[in-house]
Write a structure and sequence with these properties.
The chain has helices at about 15-20, 30-35, 35-45, 70-80, 120-135, 155-165, 190-195, 210-215, and strands at about 60-65, 140-145, 170-175, 200-205, 225-230. It has about 240 residues and is an alpha/beta fold. The protein has one domain (about 35-50, about 60-230): Rossmann fold (3-Layer(aba) Sandwich), CATH 3.40.50.970. It has a five-stranded parallel sheet, sandwiched between helices. Helix 8 (about 210-215) links the parallel strand 4 (about 200-205) and strand 5. The longest helix has 14 residues, at about 120-135. This is Transketolase.
Length: about 240
Amino acid sequence: MTITAAENRAYDYDDLPALMARMTGDEKHGPAATSTLDVLWVLYDRVLRVTPRGRDDPGRDRFLLSKGHGPMAYYAVLAAKGFLPVDWLPGFGSYDSPLGHHPDRVLVPGAEIGSGSLGHGLPIAVGTALGLRARGLHDPAVWVLTGDAELDEGSNHEAIAFAGPAGLERLHTVVIDNSSARHALPGGIAARFQAAGWSASTVDGRDHEALYAAFTAPHPGRPHVVVARVEPKNA
């Protein structure tokens, strides 16, 4: 993989719409992608301790995109941060492109998991956090981005119920709430996590300062969830 000097220039948040516009074709899952854009940018720009050169470093933070059925924003942010060449973007979804409609960890530089099937990311993140703790790696943070509809899946409820009592302090979940869940959660999404012993915050998913404050809030001895509310999917 070679990134040219022109492609390696500094990109910022305002460049992301143009980068996303390079990705064309059918089945783009546009609303699923744009709902995650601000969360992804704040994480990669200000929170995650991972770089293109250090993406295999054992001490890196891990980011798992469970909401992998709308990866355009993810690819745009990875390109903006130098993980993959910008000139890969126009081929998105084509037969010979590494950038599929679901990200593939063996093809996409920086991707920790192959994802897109609902309900897998959070259980994998729990296992990742447990594995790091067992290896004595207490500094790396594990982040997983899910959609609110994914919380309809029983595998996520099992992961939520386990992580709190296990005291997985380095585990962080971001739930994109675009009102697409089919089953209501009594008291709201955050309450479901809090009942299982998690720290929780609910914020405007388009407000970068609010997201950063929620992402960096202390939560000693407990996993942390940030519910990022965005416009309804079908609005």
